[in-house]
Amino acid sequence: MKFQKNILTNTLKELSEYFNSTDFSKAILLGIALTVPIIVGVKLDALQVGITITLGAMLASPSDVSGSIRHKITGILMATFLAMIVSLIGAYLHFSLWVLLPILGFLMFCISYIAIYGFRASLISFSGLLALVLSFSKVSSDMQPYERMLLIGIGGLWYAALSLIRHLIFPKAPTEYYLSKTLKLTADYLKTRGELVAETTDRNELLKKLLTTQTELTAVHETLRDILIKSRKDSGKSKYEGNRMLIFVQLVDMLELAMANPVNYSKTDTFFKNKPEQLVDFQGLLFAMSSRLNIIADNLSTPKRIRKNTKIEDFQKKIKDDISEYAAASDQTFDENLLLLKNLFKYQQDQIKKLEKIEWLLENPGQREISILKKEDTRRFLTKQNYEFEVLAVNLNLRSPIFKHALRLGVMSMIGYGVGMLFEVQNPYWILLTLIVIMRPTFGLTKTRSKERTIGTLIGGALAVGIVLLTQNTTVYGILAIASLVIAFSMVQRNYKASATFITLSVVFIYALLQPNIFNVIQYRVMDTLIGAGLATLGNLFLWPAWEIQSMQNTLLETVKANRIYLEEIIGYYTKKGAIPAQYKVARKKAFLEVSDLSTAFQRMTQEPKSRQKSLDKVYEIVVLNHNFLSSLASVSTYILNNPTTPASKNFKKVSKKIVQNLSDAEGILKEEISSKEIEQTTSPEDIFEATFGISINFSEEEKTQPQTDDFHSKLEEAHLIREQLKWLLAMSEKMPKLLRETEF
């Protein structure tokens, strides 16, 4: 009974999240944009005009993605302009098949190559491809080409106006949604961290889950960063934007703290094995913070509903008592286990401070109490896209994944349309439609999309048959067509299989309104999807395949470089102290992004055929090594940012310099500038470290005899943490070039 209740609760929670998501609100907006012109067209006896305006709105909609309103509207207008030009060209493509095919392939290549300018450009490119494919349909075929082009433009402007109105009515909605999502993902990350503490046999699955959550969290950070910084730039300083920006800053810091691993698991496992009650308390504190973040996320817009909770305070008190009890029983000047406990707890206390700051900010403190970030500093955190013409020229080669994808799509479009025409398929452009939706630059993504699209289409076709057998009411078909379309568009990013199911239902019911033989429509829809999905998979498999291992070398280079720059910023700050420079946090952001990109690239690699998973085990080892390296950097970073520290010692500078050199050597190997034989290491990293720092922390005679003050304990904690992390960083940095030498790219 309790299990069923939990399922019901989770289902209702997921439904609530779905209806509150930006995906659903955008789908509703699209539903309005598509239906109003048709209804008006019917009323004014100008259905063809209404349908063409609807087509323009649909072609503009892919660029309506999360981000600043300026970028969003610019993207919609550019997509509209491209759709107008392509539709005009498409209207004149009335040639014989053998003349048409190379022109079609060339146009497909040119339009898809626009994606070289990044994610938003790829969406504009998709609008152009969709416009070209739909120019082969019979929609508005009775109109003059220029009339059709202008009406498509009106449809795009209509959608842009609706999008702008939505923003003016609900200006805070995207910020609140993505901030809530960030809170929930951070909560998931903390919960997984808590599970990792208790797991002692096999941590691989939990580590994979942690990497996946971190990758998703980093992507959401980028979106939220763009929304917050660009909205401040456009509208100037406001209390709301400043408040949300500071909450976001706390969440970024919380991710770094959560990543921080002040001790390695082997030591914590050994200690907590003898002290299981202390493990329960540390784990309970992490779970309590995770639960609190979820509560805040659910009540972000209504903070007064957030009730005071003492769970975090209770666990804090228990851990303090545990540490005091252990300290009283210890008679050693330097007890490593005691320092381990204190450092672990210090990280959790810093996390609690961030959580408390978020709750304080949600109480809407006065403007003077909030320290607003400078615009000049925040702009540095935006990832800028290069829109220079030379980007097109530089990537015109088979080393560029986008160039190969555009070339592949052009060739497969010729084959797909040719097959459709030769075998007299009812709607050969449906094959093209399947190709542009499914084909992606990498095999793994294309394979997944092909599978989900095929299954979704079969399910949609089966459901459509069942509904047609139950009723032949055209009003029901019309309602189902609109409802299915709205659900389909809202599910594209969440569940592509479900989206394909509802797209099929929508297409079938739209055609059912236009022609009586609906079973033929279902049959051809399924057949065209199977042909398109098969061609997409074969194209990615045999035509200039872009296997992940081919780009892995460059991905690793960017990751190692980002980690090195972040390390250099940490060394610089620890040496000089003072105010935290803006480039410090920019370097941190870059390191997090690159490690997430590396993790995503590896996931794509695992989806490829076994024969193409070259050096998979080695690559996985390098991915985990880079993640652990960043975790260790986060440990040092969070400690020196949140605690007063002593001057950097000569030993610190010497070892950190060696770590930087090792990373530079790794970069040299990846750039193929350094031969693997040039950097053969004869001395073990442990020997190097102990020769510099000694086997253990050294105390002067004065320190041994004097009473142990709080200041002494703070210095001891700092020495222990910095020493342990440097030792681990050195070992990992020594291992990295060795692994890279053994990996075949």
The number of strands is: 0
- Uncertain segments are 699-705
What number of domains?
4
Mean pLDDT: 81
Computed Rg: 29 Å
- Name the structural class: mainly alpha
Largest sheet geometry: none
Please state the oligomeric state of the protein chains shown: single chain
CATH class assignment of the largest domain: Mainly Alpha
CATH hierarchy: architecture of the largest domain? Up-down Bundle
Characterize the overall form: globular
- Kindly estimate the percentage of residues that lie in beta strands according to DSSP: under 5%
At CATH level 3, the topology of the largest domain is Methane Monooxygenase Hydroxylase, Chain G, domain 1
Number of helices: 29
N→C terminal distance: 54 Å
Secondary-structure element pattern, one letter each: HHHHHHHHHHHHHHHHHHHHHHHHHHHHH
Tell me roughly what share of residues is in helical segments.
over 70%
What does this structure look like?
Residues 77-346 form the Integral membrane protein YccS N-terminal domain. The chain crosses the membrane at residues 28-61, 73-93, 99-116, 149-169, 406-423, 429-446, 458-490, 496-514, 526-547. Mean pLDDT is 81; it is low at 699-705. The protein has 29 helices and no strands. It is an all-alpha fold. The chain folds into 4 domains: 1-170, no CATH class; 173-379, Methane Monooxygenase Hydroxylase, Chain G, domain 1; 395-545, no CATH class; 548-742, Up-down Bundle (Methane Monooxygenase Hydroxylase, Chain G, domain 1), CATH 1.20.58. It is globular, with a radius of gyration of 29 Å. It has helices at 2-20, 22-43, 47-60, 69-90, 97-112, 119-134, 145-169, 173-198, 204-235, 239-259, 265-274, 276-298, 311-329, 336-362, 375-379, 390-394, 401-422, 429-438, 443-470, 474-491, 496-514, 518-542, 548-576, 582-606, 616-642, 650-670, 685-693, 701-705, 710-742.
